[in-house]
Amino acid sequence: MSSSLLPLTSPFTSTNAQLAFKARTNQTHGFRVSCNSVPDDQSDKKIILPESQKLVVPNVDRRNLLVGLGGLYTAANLSGVGAAIATPITAPDITSICKDASAGIRNQEKAIRTRKCCPPSLGKKIKTFQFPTENSVRKRWPAHAGTKKQVDDYRRAIQAMRDLPDDHPHSFVNQAKIHCAYCNGGYTQVDSGFPEIDIQIHNSWLFFPFHRWYLYFYERILGKLINEPNFALPYWKWDEPAGMPIADMFLAETIDGKPNSLYDVYRNANHIEEKLVDLDYDGKDKDIPDYQQVQCNLATVYRDLVRNGGDTLSFFGGEYVAGDSPVGNSDPSVGSVESGSHTAVHRWVGDPTQPNSEDMGNFYSAGYDPSFYIHHANVDRMWKLWKELRLPGHVEPTDPDWLNASYVFYDENEDLVRVYNKDCVDLGRLKYNFIENSREVFPWRKSRPAQRRRSSQVATTGDVKTVDQVRFPVRLNEILKVKVKRPAVNRSDEEKENANEVLLIKGIRYDSGKFVKFDVFVNDKLKEGEFTTPCDPEYAGGFAQIPHSDMRSMFMKSSARFGLTELLEDTNTDGEEYATVTLVPRVGCEDLTVGQIKIELVPVRKV
Predict the structure, then answer these.
(1) What confidence tens digit (pLDDT) does each residue in 158-174 have?
(2) Which of 29, 144, 170, 211 is catalytic?
(3) Model confidence over 128-159: pLDDT tens digits?
(4) Residue 211 catalytic?
(5) Is 211 labelled as part of a ligand binding site?
(6) For residues 277 and 286, is the Cβ–Cβ distance under 8 A?
(7) What is the pLDDT of residue 11?
(8) How much is the pTM?
(9) Active-site residue flag, 208
(10) What is the pairing mode between strands 234-235 and 138-142?
């Protein structure tokens, strides 16, 4: 192929155009070209192409592209171009382009909360986000250790929000609906040229930044309602033993004879008072003493932030750009925290006796429980702590499709504001931070599972099939055990610093209208009569999903990534050519299938 580019002023034949714009997916969509301004230090009217496309068409001005096509193609009939040219997810005007939520609500007729999740329209245009200018910094505080003033102000602010009319954009109901609309099919990718494809901010690299922005505005709205400019949210510090039970301020139905604004009737009654949260919850309570539950929780946090969060995509989740379907035509990987401790807490709090596990157990209703916001405040803190570890690979995404992904919210002044991922990476500019109530090393940092004693292990048996001998996709209606060839053995410390060994489970197709979880164990060689637990080094982690699908197709695809570098050391198996991978279905896996299992070396960027 010649290195010279086809001149954009020359007419293309239909065949040449189709070859030049090779589709990213197997779908064909209309392409809507926009010349709207996007705040950035660089030119905002550039079409960002995948690397594979840059030899064919350079980054060009959208308007020049249409002119250069000589009139043969227009924005209305450039079939497939939108799929070929990667662009960031862009939320539409949320007050004018919105539909009733249906995704992930299996029992719609008996749904406890409304599916009409669209925000009210005040007839305002979308503004560009401006960073706060105040000198003070809001300090989020551990929910279990709040002062009387902090707790009283928080209760008072939530009550003020509940007292607003339901049609007010700041009302308790409308703030809860934000999660429903963005997570359960309320908005489409119409501003990116894909009006038939929903936006889904879970199960990809949008998870952390979306929820950070959501809580940013929620916190500022609460502060304004009670005229407290330094008001800050509490966070559920489930990564510390004292903070693992749900805080007392959420428990009482009434306070001094008045309704407790922090109470929610739709919680799991068996998990509320004096119960330690289970950060690896699979729908069943573990019959273990509290000290062991603490150990398992701390090991889960360590696994989410260190072992399985060893590179950008493993922590944040897989790439998700305009034209990608959240349901059937892509399989971005879910991030380590999202699939791990985040999902476990949602299910642990939600009421399993309700039709859709309301409130916390389903995305459409989660925002109606005040505990949702303190849970996600700690999830947001996990991003901060992960970054502050400054380990190789702990670097935020730099892809323009992540940096320029955007959402629209009502701010504390009732103005519509468009915000971008790139503007939420620096907490200093957002004027909030977290109070840490201890100067000691976080307990989860010292919770790497202990190395397995060789005396408790047995030799590898040869009766396990290799992945080459298994016909994929395979249904996970029973335990699946396979041997997977590793790309290298006994790597040096320097090699391990430059690349993580990662187990990839791809093409996970599951019924996304129900809670799904399976666990992953690697090189489990315990002698007969000994059993592996989530506290042990052989436990790689789990894949878990809260209901969130498009009702037109209840089946959804995803992938999962699990770090193996430390696991292989801790199980005394770093020198073995094959890793034995065991998938154990826990709940909702009757019709779940797995498309591929493999191990790769993933290069990591230095901090």
Answers:
(1) 999 999 999 999 999 99
(2) 211
(3) 999 999 999 999 999 999 999 999 999 999 99
(4) yes
(5) yes
(6) no
(7) 32
(8) 0.86
(9) no
(10) parallel
